[in-house]
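Researcher: Dear colleague, please comment on this protein.
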Amino acid sequence: MTLSYSDTRKKLDQITAEMLVLIRKYDLDAASPFDVIEVARAKITDQNDYIRFLELSLEGRIYGEYGDALQKQIDEEAKQAETARKLN
């Protein structure tokens, strides 16, 4: 499956929205990104919500890295096109 940069951003926005619901529901207030899982484990009382939180965390990471790679590719292609334009 290949996603455009726009589709990737939309998916990340959906993941973020669902994650925010869980963050607010359980008042997840980690002081550092390194504490997020520990805080979630301690505060999320519904096992299904905890599993969904972990899934969203993983999905967010995957889509985020994919989006970053796409952006780098877009930037590189634009740079190459500009270089080619200057040479012609």
Summary: The two ends are 36 Å apart (CA to CA).
